[in-house]
Amino acid sequence: MPVTCVIGLQWGDEAKGKIVDLLTADHDVVVRYQGGSNAGHTVVTGGQSYKLSLVPSGIFRRNVQCVVAGGVVLNPASLIDEIDGLTSRGVRVGENLIISDRAHVVFPWHVEEDRLLDKLCDGGEAIGTTMRGIGPCYRDKVGRSLAVRLGDLYRPGLRERIAQIVQAKRRILAGMGGAAEEGSLDPDQIFQAYEQHAARLRPHVADTTVFLLDAVEANKRILFEGAQGAMLDVDHGTFPFVTSSNSSGAGVSSGSGVPGRYITKVLGIVKAYTTRVGGGPFPTEQDNETGQHIREMGNEYGTVTRRPRRCGWFDAVAARYAARLSGVDSLAVMLLDVLSRLAEIQVCMAYELDGRRTTTFPSHVDDLRRVVPVYEMLPGWQTDITAARTVDDLPEPARAYLARLGQLVGRPIEMVSVGPDRDQTIPVPHSFFRP
Ligand code: IMP
User: Fold this and answer.
1) What's the gap in Å between 388 CA and the centre of ligand 1?
2) Ligand 1 in contact with 38 (CB < 6 A)?
3) Residues near 11 by Cβ (< 8 Å), separated by ≥ 6?
4) Are 370 and 353 in contact (CB under 8 A)?
5) What is the pLDDT of residues 334-391, one digit of tens each?
6) Is the pLDDT of residue 32 over 90?
7) What 3-state DSSP class applies to 352?
8) For a pocket test of ligand 1, which of 10, 104, 129 has the largest count of ligand atoms closer than 8 A to its C-beta?
9) Under a CB-based contact definition with an 8 Å cutoff, are residues 333 and 273 in contact?
């Protein structure tokens, strides 16, 4: 039975939500296992567009069990808002959503720490976080002493625990130059709000680790929905300009509890170009008219923060590294239609570092800053491809472009997307685009 992972291979925003939504038709369980409300997954279904953050993209299908596993950091108020938003539009969110009691909880002090800390990074260049408290919450998880898991909200002593943490956090925030005044974090107010959130979420809370282990052992079809992209992985990405979780394939097991040996397939998702939100090096960035053109054509503005995304050419060095790192079997290439008006398209097939050509992705951010992309120029197609439904419907230059991407990344292409709707997806026969 398929146990499939959908992993972004760039810096996030690869349109994974659309692919997850398509694949859920063939799966029984859809799992979010890392990240939190920093993620924004857009799913277009029945002519309506939904923005999801914590709720798995399987929520729109009947008979699909959605799971938010323990590796996720959870802001209860955001999750409740999201659930309410979905139910008000007629989407059923009941026992089809379970949430791990091991998930760590985001509190107001995390959001404040995010704001204060972001400026301190890397001699002035901010990470440019989504300001959702994600990094500080993960830091408390690893630090342990000031952490609260969802399951803790249902145990005695929560009021005292919150008071104790607030005391410590006030000192920490003051040391970081934040608002130190008494009352800036009111433990009673926080306790009351979180007690209410906890009561709302109670019907969904479960031991998802055991649920998922039972599911794989019962041969259920499981889909793991990655958030962000492999290049933002805290261990293997462009550190420190990363998110605080394992957003490459490496995070599936630690975040969900399901051993890697059960995974039968990893689908890597790439855009036909590259985008990045926030700070950090981006070798193929086009901070010019081309980048602006891609931004407008692709509506490249953040789902969560609405920040304009930085846009650039496809970086095959980064994507190949990410594909190897995540154990990718095949690729889905998204947003190919965004490139349709360009006369020429460039692809970065290598870097030059200190005068030497390399296809190895540098491990240090300083080296990544210094690389000079080596581009290959490919002809554009300059026709509307949004109505294409088979590979043969695509103009020859678009097919050649795809073939070259697959070759450079070293993985076969399985799907191509030419628009947001479910049906604007081209299945690619095995014989096409094999590297
Ligand atoms: P954080 O995850 O909010 O700590 O942000 C860390 C970095 O990851 C910033 O550069 C964010 O812009 C980026 N990031 C976090 N989540 C996403 C996402 O879902 N898509 C794209 N970038 C993201």
Assistant:
1) 32
2) yes
3) 228, 229, 231, 232, 238, 274, 275, 276, 277, 282
4) yes
5) 999 999 999 999 999 999 999 999 999 999 999 999 999 999 999 999 999 999 999 9
6) yes
7) strand
8) 129
9) no
Q: Which amino acid is at 42?
A: T
Is 13 among the catalytic positions? yes
Residues in CB range of 368: below 8 A, 6 or more apart:
238, 281, 283, 361, 362
DSSP string, 186-233: -HHHHHHHHHHHHHHHGGGEE-HHHHHHHHHHTT--EEEEEEEEGGG-
Three-state DSSP at 412 gives coil
Both structure tokens of 108: 């107001």
Name residue 4's beta-bridge partners.
223, 265
3 state DSSP class of 187: helix
The phi, psi pair for 318, rounded to 5°, reads -65, -45
Measured CA to CA, the distance from residue 11 to residue 127 in angstroms comes to 13
- Say what the pLDDT of residue 331 is: 97
DSSP class of 93? -
pLDDT at 181: 54
- The Cα diameter of the chain in Å comes to 67
Q: What is the rounded CA–CA span in Å between residue 45 and residue 50?
A: 8
392 has catalytic annotation = no
**Contact in structure between 393 and 423 (CB atoms under 8 Å):** no
For β-strands 48-52 and 41-45, DSSP reports them as antiparallel
Identify the CA nearest to 11 among candidates 270, 206, 346.
Answer: 270
Residue 328 to residue 5: CA distance in whole angstroms: 9
How far is the CA of 313 from the CAs of 5, 69, 139, 342, 378, in angstroms? 26, 34, 34, 12, 12
What is the separation of C-alpha 351 from the centre of its chain, rounded to a whole number of angstroms? 26
Rounded to two decimals, the pTM is: 0.96
The amino acid present at 41, given as its one-letter code, is: H
Separation of CA 212 and ligand 1 centre (Å): 27
Q: Give the Cα separation of 299 and 371 in Å (integer).
A: 28
Q: Please count the CA atoms within 13 angstroms of the CA of 161 that sit on its side-chain side.
A: 16
Beta partners for 74?
105
